[in-house]
Amino acid sequence: MVAFNKVAKRGLIAAGAVFLCESAFSKDITIAWNPNTERDIAGYKLYVVETGQPANAITVATNVANVTGLVEGKTYVLYATAFNTAGLESDPSQQINYTVPSGLQDQMDSPLKLATGGMQITSRGLPGHSYMIQATRNLVTSPWVTLQTVQPDASGVIRITDPANLARRFYRTVEAP
Q: How far is 42 from 20, CA to CA, in rounded Å?
């Protein structure tokens, strides 16, 4: 989480804090920030800047944006602004730098159903790093729950067993802070 406390000009307040959600080797990320509380907010712009390139703006109605198509190994600068119904745009929030991890392909295998009803989860990561294996029952309405925080073996493999015998469950791997 990166906090921004900057009060913007023209009466708008820039977003309050940024949260970056990603899988450990994602080329797509979801970024969220504290919403602006002014009554006349019409939306937000998330700016994505690759070093040496012009900024790309993603306009969204809520305080969450998906950024797709990022390139492995490249560093991006991200910052948000709010705009109101009169079209006035706030000062930019604090910037965050994000380097897209590279080097590992096919981070997570399809879960394997066990005879006991649970699932075997196999993922990958960098040896010496810690990762959270998370699960949710519904991608839209349910929160992600950390099943285990683990380190990969010397070859980069992570393997855990989820004993839950559920008809539907989604999994992801997130690098632990």
A: 22
Those residues of the chain that have pLDDT short of 50 are 1-25
Note the pTM of the prediction, 2 decimals: 0.51
List Cα–Cα distances, 55 to 21, 58, 156, 157, in angstroms. Answer: 21, 10, 35, 37
Task: Give Cβ neighbours of residue 149 (< 8 Å, ≥ 6 apart).
Answer: 130, 131, 132, 133, 176
Range of the domain at 81: 2-99
Residues 66 and 135 placed together within one structural domain of the fold: no
| Per-residue burial over 107-133, b = 16 or more CB atoms within 10 Å of its CB, e = otherwise | bbeebeeeeeebbebbbbbbeeeebbb
Q: Which amino acid is at 94?
A: Q
